[in-house]
Fold this sequence. Notes:
Number of strands: 8
Low-confidence stretches: 332-338
Mean pLDDT: 92
CATH class of the largest domain: Alpha Beta
Shape: globular
Strand content: 5-15%
CATH topology of the largest domain: Rossmann fold
Family: Belongs to the 3-hydroxyacyl-CoA dehydrogenase family.
Number of helices: 12
Distance between the termini: 40 Å
Largest sheet: 8 strands, mixed
CATH superfamily of the largest domain: NAD(P)-binding Rossmann-like Domain
Order of helices and strands: EHEHHEHEHEEEHEHHHHHH
Pathway: Lipid metabolism; butanoate metabolism
InterPro entries: 3-OHacyl-CoA_DH_CS, 3-OHacyl-CoA_DH_NAD-bd, 3HC_DH_C, 6-PGluconate_DH-like_C_sf, 6PGD_dom2, NAD(P)-bd_dom_sf
Strand order of the largest sheet: 3-2-1-4-5-6-7-8
Radius of gyration: 22 Å
Structural class: alpha/beta
Pfam families: 3HCDH, 3HCDH_N
EC number: 1.1.1.35
Helix content: 40-55%
Amino acid sequence: MISPPPLGSGAAHSPRTVAVVGAGSIGIAWAVVFSSARVSVRLLETDDTVRRGALGEVDSVLTALFEAGLLAEPVADVLARVSMHDSLTAAVDGADFVQECVIEDIEVKRELFAELDRITPPGVVLASSTSTIMASLFAAEIPGRDRCLVVHPANPPYFLRVAEIVPAPFTSAEAIDSARELLTQVDMTPVVLNREIEGFAFNRLQGAVLREAYCLVRDGVLSASDLDTLVRDGLGLRWSVIGPFTTSELNTRGGIRRHAEVIGPVYARIGVMRGADDPWTPETIEMVASEIEQRLPHATWEENVHERDRAMIKLASLLRQFENPLAQAPTAASTSPL
């Protein structure tokens, strides 16, 4: 959305307590998301140095959000909901949901989830923030595996307010529903995957773009900075308003079916060139087209194109008020060595 309400400005919910295990960047981000939505956060960090600075990191992010008009309460009121702990038992005491944010290591997660299963009541959902590791790889052997799943946020989740819920084959429907309910409560949009798959959906999409980006730079087609410019000022802006399927629907008169007919063969040839002979099937095209058409707000193609254009114009108007320092950052050649 272009003009989101301040965090925590939605309807009141019943009190909840979430344990966030790990105070790295994702743990800090989750603490911001939960606390700004009036959820109590019990933050665990066993590293003394990281733990001493963790609340300051939360404060810093909350302050930036408040100054941007994106926080509905004073920073001190939100920060008061976050408590810091140095033991797992203390952190999960009283929590009705656990969000794990430790390193990307299967063995570490396997040991941690076994311990979480042992010390928390059966109704507490155990969720991992992992970007790539399926829950079936680290939770399959524990007695309470039915309450284990992945809740992988886009990073940072206090800005990119979507998270994918990835259940394992053994995850219960109740655990999925609990994760979906919590994300909705804290102003996140949950996307539930129908099955486990390595990399989940977010990173598979990101990986597909990165694979082609590296190839284009490697083959001398364009520079890395120009590639970033194309995505930042082109695809990225468009996708912030509508996704790739709706883009296909509205970029071509005749919609997705016509787009696939005209452009599909080109993408298929590019795929073969990159070693991926996996063309779009008529059945998949029809399934996608039918779903996207049902979700469009207006009855005609022209009306939906006008709606897209109005949203993009509004976004462009907002963005013109700000400069992007990363887009204008000096090159390595123009900076002094550190």
